[in-house]
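Table 4 source record.
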Amino acid sequence: MIDRLRRIQHARSGWYWLVVVAGVVVGEVTAASADKISDGSGPVEAPRSLLDLPTMHPPQSLAQHQDQETTNDTACVPESFKIALDIGHTPQASGATSARGVKEYKFNVQLAKQMESKLIQGGFSNTTLITARGAGRDQLRMRVERANALGADLLLSIHHDDVQEIYYSKWKYGGSLRNYSDRFAGYSLFVSRDNQHFDKSLAFAKLLGRELRAKDLRFSAHHAEPIAGENREIIDSGAGIYRYDDLFVLKFSVAPAVLLEAGIIVNRNEELELSSPERRDQISGAVLAALKEFCGAFDRRPN
């Protein structure tokens, strides 16, 4: 009788399911069969013996398998894993303006610096902030060149979000009439299929989305609205991931790359939350947790 199934991500083989009987790993099945075992809908294919899997070892206890995972030659070594934290926008091209008149660049700097500290404290001492100056394509090229020169293993671009003008309303704050929109709230993640490590980019985005959702942070689907300037394809609604192939920083990074829109700063309530150290710590903690899993799941050899 099958005790349980255990989902495993092997560095070279991807996701698979271990079949556990009486505390011993006896075989491997596909995700489809695992679903049928879990809900009792059967029939399922017979588990393949671990002896038939070239990257695996003979049947073993879960404890033995966990020991093997710990000593795997692709296990995470945080201090040697190079992370480029790209601070979106520049002082000269500062991005969106919040409901209270604060420039996006300020939000990006605050979050990136707090995230850098969190990652270094978590063992990822090879974390580097990427900044640029100026406007237009030159500053985009500058930040990509800097990240690529680092030999980064992952690039994460930090941004805060806006909405299209058709959703703006007006309110008076600080003596000035300002734009706001409380219609949408939440984070978004973007990946580019033109990145040479798209599969790894998507894998990290899924891990990060899962960690953000675990902290009760929600995904905003407003970039999929069928309107001018949006209509983006959602790759994974559960994790909150969009496809945006032509995002320059993602497209031309030689490392896996993900862009994070941490939240919507024209939403008056979310702006206050995003301004708080507590929210920045939540987001930074999600990034750290995702990195720990990503770092150990993939070796860094070229695809």
